[in-house]
Amino acid sequence: MIPETVGSLIAQKYKSAKENDHLHFIETESKAIKDNDSGMNFVISYTPSLLKKPERADAQKDGTDPFEKPEPELTILEDLNEDGQFKLLLNKFPVIANHTLLVTKEFKHQNTALTPPELMVAYKLLCTLDKTESKRHMVFYNSGPQSGSSQDHKHLQMLALPEDFVPFQDNLCAGKPHFLPDFKTEPLQDDKVSFAHYVLPMPEDSDSVDEDLMAMCYISLLQRALTFFQDWTNEKPNMEKSYNFLLTKKWICLIPRSRTQAESLEIGFNAVGYAGLVLVKKEDVFQKITEKPELINDVLLECGFPNTAGTKPTEYHY
Ligand code: B4P
């Protein structure tokens, strides 16, 4: 059972860790913009201090696992669900307050698929926090080397969405009941958005959500992403599968990824970029995309795969 007080436990731990310099809050200058072509809303956060932070390759070089024996000052709960499977930690380098990490107690690799208990504990954590903190939260999972991940010990992340922020997935799912895709029905995809994304509305009644339902949703979305990786096996036989997983109480979403960083513009994304929360480390890039928001849709495509809305699956699809 996740304690009902988890929200206040996170806030207390965050306050003391910040006051005592156990975490490094990254100051950002943020701007809300809209791309009228795709209809996507964005919050662009400019943070030059992150230029000094090591990239994935450098972070892995020393071979240490920061989640194996996490700092006590960043550990919110040693056993989140009282089942010996997950610990809840504070992110040491947050851009948003109270950004937490849901980490497996035993080492599992970040490339492994999410299991039904992992999906369920993430969903329950979301429900508890949305109820007690009067804010909307989002869970995300960056899996594979092109997904934007930097740590290999399996971890999901959770943060509060900015107030009044409407991710495009909200509009896509508005008024639509929960369903599972089948041979005739594809997951939702917004044809104005450049990149492939697979979305399902979640049931309104959170009590009807169980491990089986979570697993069916996740697997049906992952299947669509696998088709892209299959198509690429001739061209890039060693390509490792990468994708972003995003979950709110309203919807579940999966984005297949082809690269971490764009080439046309110095910008990279993890999962939150594909909900519209974009982190920029260079001033000229910040200027360019705030002046011309449609550029973001181009670079999101460069780091993903083309939208497949309206394409019927064939016998060669997963
Ligand atoms: P990963 O899945 O491996 O990687 P990531 O979130 O893309 O973060 P990355 O480390 O690549 O940093 P980036 O500059 O892109 O997650 C690893 C997580 O573990 C990260 O949250 C990391 O900070 C954390 N961590 C590393 N060492 C730790 C330690 N010793 N103890 C506890 N936690 C540790 O982004 C910087 C930060 O901003 C990340 O937290 C990222 O999630 C967040 N972020 C990125 N875009 C954002 C946006 N638009 N809005 C809000 N936050 C955003």
TrEMBL record:
Molecular function terms, GO-annotated: ATP binding; ATP:ADP adenylyltransferase activity; bis(5'-nucleosyl)-tetraphosphatase activity; sulfate adenylyltransferase (ADP) activity
InterPro entries named among the record's database cross-references: Ap4A_phos1/2, Ap4A_phos1/2-like, Ap4A_phos1/2_N, ATP_adenylylTrfase_C, HIT-like_sf
Pfam families: Ap4A_phos_N, ATP_transf
Ranges of residues in domain Ap4A phosphorylase 1/2 N-terminal: 3-162
A biological-process GO annotation: nucleotide biosynthetic process
Keywords associated with the record: ATP-binding, Cytoplasm, Hydrolase, Nucleotide-binding, Nucleus, Transferase
Highest taxon of source: Eukaryota
Active-site feature positions: H155 (nucleophile)
Annotated Gene Ontology cellular component terms: cytoplasm; nucleus
Subcellular location: Cytoplasm; Nucleus
Catalysis: reaction(s): sulfate + ADP + H(+) = adenosine 5'-phosphosulfate + phosphate; ADP + ATP + H(+) = P(1),P(4)-bis(5'-adenosyl) tetraphosphate + phosphate
Keyword Nucleotide-binding attributed: yes
Domain ATP adenylyltransferase C-terminal: 192-306
Cofactor(s) recorded in Swiss-Prot or TrEMBL: a divalent metal cation
PANTHER family in alphabetical order: AP-4-A PHOSPHORYLASE II (PTHR38420), PUTATIVE (AFU_ORTHOLOGUE AFUA_5G14690)-RELATED (PTHR38420:SF1)
Family: Belongs to the ATP adenylyltransferase family.
Subunit structure: Monomer.
UniProt name for this protein: Protein APA1
Origin species: Candida glabrata (Yeast)
